Amino acid sequence: MEQKLTMSTKERKRLKVLSEHERGKLTVVESAEILGISERQTYRIISRYKKTGDAGVIHLLRGSKSNRGYPEAIKEKVIEIYWEKYRDFGPTLFAEKLEEREEIKVNHETVRRWMRGSGIITNERKKRPHKKRRERRAAKGEMLQLDGSHHDWFEGRAPKCCLLNMVDDASGQVFLRFSEGETTQSVLEALTGYCKESGIPQSIYTDRYSVYYAEQSRTDYQKALEKLAIRAIYANSPQAKGRVERGNRTHQDRLVKEMRLRNISSIAEGNKFLKEYFIETYNSKFMLAEEMADIHGSVAGKDLASIFCYETERQVKNDYTFSYEGIEYQIERSDAIMPHVKDNVFVRKYLDESMHIFNKSEEELLVKRLKKTLKLKEKRSPVPQADHPWKRY
């Protein structure tokens, strides 16, 4: 009865060399040099080959359990813990939680092999279209990628919300913040926090969402970037923001499960968790460790509250008043340069809801709210006539 032998590439090469030695084409010294082993080991293999034939080139420990392997009880316990607490965790995150919370240290590749052997995961991987990688920027602060990820972050324990994800393109360092939505208010608040912590980036890469981009006029986001000399770069597709988009997928896995383990159930609790634990832990694992130049601009001497705000212009009337949101305001005398009649003043509504008025020289003006308020015209939708074609049909 014929015996079937399974050999690796290395073993097939070894069999070819031994057969040539047996024919007298190669000496022991030449065979040892080709195989990359010692002469003594070559003599052992030749002896075994003569006794058992082709099976002699197969490693004797094949199929036996490693002396450095984990006990079977540990494997069974890990699989049991997985089904009890971590049934939707991936191998890498599961291995981290085992060490952190269960005090069981097992390499994540070993965990992956155990999960695959237990049928929890398979070898199948979803095919993705080929894309050419864009090289990272050379220095920290050269480009910041910004995107909002709308997701059920609290898994029903709180309403769906948005995670504002900011990633430094060079180092991969992240800055995260939860908000109710991807609004001008939340974006400006997040950028204020980023600049205070890391400095002013040279450019920011976003999509063309209405918060960031407008064709006919400038958004408050664009006005803020112009004041800080930050270049606004806009992507033409979600795939163009690959680094931040991949980060969103990672956070929808890791961050959601981390908050589930701690029963975090609100935006306020989530932001506290991000600040006190998750951001630092995530950056320590995934941020590039090598030293690189940092070209973030300094925020010293810059009034970020007056930059990241809602800004509009109003014209000064003959009696040195102007109107804003249906309310009349009187400009009073002060040490600041007084605007002329029909000059424009800058009305800035800060993120804390306070209102501040500035002249063209960026000096703040004193104003007084008048009791008289303007009656805003109520906008009504036009009602079609009875014989209108739309009603006839």
Radius of gyration: 34 Å
Level-2 CATH architecture of the largest domain: 2-Layer Sandwich
What would CATH call the class of the largest domain? Answer: Alpha Beta
Major sheet, described briefly? Answer: 6 strands, antiparallel
Strand order of the largest sheet: 6-9-10-11-8-7
H-E string: HHHHHHEEEHEHEHHHEEEEEEH
Mean pLDDT across the residues is 86
Structural class: alpha+beta
| Separation, N- and C-terminal Cα atoms | 87 Å
Number of strands: 11
* Shape annotation: elongated
Low-confidence stretches: none
Note the topology.
Layout: H1 9-22, H2 28-35, H3 39-52, H4 72-85, H5 91-101, H6 108-117, E1 144-151, E2 161-168, E3 174-179, H7 184-198, E4 203-206, H8 220-227, E5 231-234, H9 242-261, H10 267-286, H11 304-307, E6 310-315, E7 321-324, E8 327-332, E9 344-349, E10 355-358, E11 364-373, H12 389-392
Parallel strand pairs: 1-4, 4-5
Antiparallel strand pairs: 1-2, 2-3, 6-9, 7-8, 8-11, 9-10, 10-11
Helix pairs in contact: 1-2, 2-3, 5-6
Question: How would you describe the overall organization of this protein?
Answer:
This protein folds into four domains: 9-57; 72-117; 144-246 and 263-286, Nucleotidyltransferase, domain 5; 309-373, no CATH class. The protein contains twelve helices and eleven strands. The chain has helices spanning 9-22, 28-35, 39-52, 72-85, 91-101, 108-117, 184-198, 220-227, 242-261, 267-286, 304-307, 389-392, and strands at 144-151, 161-168, 174-179, 203-206, 231-234, 310-315, 321-324, 327-332, 344-349, 355-358, 364-373. The strands form two sheets. A six-stranded antiparallel sheet has the order 6-9-10-11-8-7, with no helix packed on it.
